[in-house]
Amino acid sequence: MLISIQRFEYSERVEKHYIRINPLWGGCSSGGRAGQLLIGRINGQLVALKVIRMKTEEGVPFNAIREASLLKRLKHANIVLLHDIIHTRETLTFVFEYLQTDLAQYMIQHPGGLRYHNVRIFMFQLLRGLCYIHSRRILHRDLKPQNLLISYLGELKLADFGLARSKSIPSQTFSSEVVTLWYRPPDVLLGSTDYSTALDIWGAGCIFIEMLQGAPAFPGVSDEFEQLQKIWEVLGLSSEDSWPGVSLLPNYRPERFLYSEPKQLRTQLPYKTEDLAQEMLKVVPTDRISAPDAMQHLYFNTLPPPIMHLRDTVSIFKVPGIRLETEVRDIYNPGRKVKPSLLPSAKFW
Q1: Which three-class secondary structure state does DSSP give residue 156?
Q2: Which has more confidence, 142 or 11?
Q3: Residue 7: is its pLDDT beyond 70?
Q4: Is the pLDDT reported for residue 21 higher than 60?
Q5: Would you state the pLDDT for residue 4?
Q6: Widest pairwise Cα distance in the chain
Q7: Nearest residue to 156 via CA among 130, 177, 137
Q8: What are the two backbone dihedrals, phi and then psi, of residue 292, each rounded to the nearest 5 degrees?
Q9: Which residues are catalytic?
Q10: Residue 32 contacts by C-beta under 8 Å, 6 or more apart in sequence?
Q11: Are 203 and 183 in contact (CB under 8 A)?
């Protein structure tokens, strides 16, 4: 058995511990089934309850089993903690630690781009979580701001492993239907199903840019081809010269795209910021920087050295000097100052 599921009959005794509220973290889904996120209290501790309703004839959704099997063996300060699993005839409930918000909501509350110091702290934690799962041959496969939870201290934790996959599971290929469109790398958009940890690195790079500028890096609208055009407009149209083998990918149709040269970020970013972003957003997947190498990038040199040597389960906020700065932009402050956009004049970052 991959997981051990406690079985309880649904009863008033169980129900009274759960307080129904509005969906947390933007709602949830598993295996195509809508879920609810509630808040509960166990031994005085707030927890988040991801409730998935099941149809008797179909049983437990496979995505839910996969998420549970992965999370039960992942213990890290930057991965949401799964306390328990409750299985009844009608529902499957994941009992998670409770975190106050997610990165998407945080950026909505602080529009126009986050403080550079806070971006650095969030990015380090994101890469630290990725480094941990990648070292265990696990891909998240659905990185986006809604799946990055944030505590009141500023701790960032990877969540929603419903699409995650262990590469130790025998498989010739993976499905190309992964990752929300804006955070999907060009190789997957072009139909490749032979991908690796570079998939998550691209998503993290997109989130990096979004935190810096307060807007998505590649905001496609309708389909894979429009999303690719957004990428080519910034990074330049790929060809066999720049990406050997790209013409063999199923969706490669260069005649459908407008030719463009690579763009650059504006020169108002902190030290080494643009360099790290470019290393994470290499079009060729094998050229992308790895999570361990990204953590060692000079961009993070201003963080206290002990942050590099913490045990997996220790929060970076245990290191003296690590804290978030107050965001100068706040939706509740009409007179907030918004720093100039990082977007080039042609609307590309």
Answers
A1: strand
A2: 142
A3: no
A4: no
A5: 31
A6: 66
A7: 130
A8: -60, -40
A9: 142
A10: 61
A11: yes
pLDDT (0 to 100) of residue 48: 83
Q: Please give the Cα distance from 7 to 135 (Å, whole number).
A: 32
Report how far residue 135's alpha carbon sits from residue 128's, in angstroms, rounded to the nearest whole number: 11
Q: Identify the CA nearest to 300 among candidates 324, 276, 319.
A: 276
Two structure tokens written together for 238: 């790929």
Domains of the chain and any CATH numbers: 20-97 (3.30.200.20), 101-318 (1.10.510.10)
Three-state SS across 141-169?
Answer: CCCCHHHEEECCCCCEEECCCCCCEECCC
Q: Show the tokens assigned to 264.
A: 């650059």
Is residue 304 within 8 Å of residue 321, measured between CB atoms? yes
pLDDT value, residue 161: 80
Amino acid identity at 259: Y
Q: What's the pLDDT band for 268 if we cut at 50, 70, 90?
A: low
Residue that is written with structure tokens 């000079």 in the block: 298
Does residue 291 surpass a pLDDT of 60? yes
Which tokens hold the place of 112? Answer: 């126009």
CA distances from 227 to 158, 180, 199 (A): 24, 11, 16
Phi, psi (rounded to 5 degrees) for 7: -110, 125
Task: Supply 158's token pair.
Answer: 């990877």
What is the token pair recorded at 44? 């005085």
CA-wise closest residue to 223 among 184, 260, 262, 272: 184
Structure confidence by residue, pLDDT tens digits, 294-311:
999 999 999 999 999 999
Q: Which is more confident, 80 or 93? A: 80
Where would I find the beta strands (DSSP E) of 125-164?
Answer: 138-139, 148-150, 156-158
Residue 317's SS3 state is: helix
